[in-house]
């Protein structure tokens, strides 16, 4: 969930249920209230890139968590990222979303937007949505209310308790509900959904904001086999219209969705190619698959 959405939900819950609004972000910090200084516009992908990282470095107390990382993702691509624990996968997503600043390197969204100049809420507003491993839906609200809250319309509507959806917004909501397999659960309390359904709902909340790039951290962890299968179908439907970066350890899931796989190790790219290619790579077997 994006920081500004967290804030909006907290405010809305506070008004509706008399619950204190914390405005706490996933990062543990306070989000900027209703701050959307960057207008969502077109991302220049004429050079065939939605995301471009070059020679990125980050050290924590002298430890090189990201060490000369290069990455290039095409518009509409579904890229899988795998690698051993501590490889730098989360840190990479933290850098893309503005949570962590690199010591040096280049991080571009499309050909023209230098993400290092933007804050976390600004990057979300630019069209980069992030899904953390643990679902963070508003449990006390219904499925419908969660999605309604996430609409990418003028966020000033959040200042009023009730607002009417336009016809276009209703259509979008119905389309997202269908995409995330929750059309029959419209009025259900989000807290009563299964783990997998909560994950889909949060993905739906991101989709309501029409992100151009979605970063998904271990989306099928804790899901049943059937939920995992349906999530694979969902991601395959999303690619093309959105670009997706999926970090996962579940190799069956990776096989179901992958085109190109990037293997991270020690903060840089160890191998890249189809799943069959990287699975046959001796270095990958050594550090990750052969464990
Ligand atoms: N804020 C921090 N301070 C110190 N060290 C950090 C910090 N964040 C990450 N690290 C270290 O950087 C390395 C990369 O961590 P990261 O969480 O990015 O790996 P990962 O590939 O996501 O691992 P996992 O698969 O276990 O989630 C790890 O050794 C981690 O301990």
TrEMBL record:
<dbReference type="InterPro" id="IPR051120">
    <property type="entry name" value="ABC_AA/LPS_Transport"/>
</dbReference>
<dbReference type="GO" id="GO:0005524">
    <property type="term" value="F:ATP binding"/>
</dbReference>
<dbReference type="InterPro" id="IPR027417">
    <property type="entry name" value="P-loop_NTPase"/>
</dbReference>
<feature type="domain" description="ABC transporter">
    <location>
        <begin position="51"/>
        <end position="291"/>
    </location>
</feature>
<dbReference type="InterPro" id="IPR003593">
    <property type="entry name" value="AAA+_ATPase"/>
</dbReference>
<dbReference type="InterPro" id="IPR032823">
    <property type="entry name" value="BCA_ABC_TP_C"/>
</dbReference>
<dbReference type="InterPro" id="IPR017781">
    <property type="entry name" value="ABC_transptr_urea_ATP-bd_UrtD"/>
</dbReference>
<keyword id="KW-0067">ATP-binding</keyword>
<dbReference type="GO" id="GO:0005886">
    <property type="term" value="C:plasma membrane"/>
</dbReference>
<dbReference type="InterPro" id="IPR003439">
    <property type="entry name" value="ABC_transporter-like_ATP-bd"/>
</dbReference>
<dbReference type="Pfam" id="PF12399">
    <property type="entry name" value="BCA_ABC_TP_C"/>
</dbReference>
<keyword id="KW-0813">Transport</keyword>
<feature type="region of interest" description="Disordered">
    <location>
        <begin position="1"/>
        <end position="39"/>
    </location>
</feature>
<dbReference type="Pfam" id="PF00005">
    <property type="entry name" value="ABC_tran"/>
</dbReference>
<keyword id="KW-0547">Nucleotide-binding</keyword>
<keyword id="KW-1003">Cell membrane</keyword>
<dbReference type="GO" id="GO:0016887">
    <property type="term" value="F:ATP hydrolysis activity"/>
</dbReference>
<keyword id="KW-0378">Hydrolase</keyword>
<protein>
    <submittedName>
        <fullName>Lipopolysaccharide export system ATP-binding protein LptB</fullName>
        <ecNumber>3.6.3.-</ecNumber>
    </submittedName>
</protein>
<keyword id="KW-0472">Membrane</keyword>
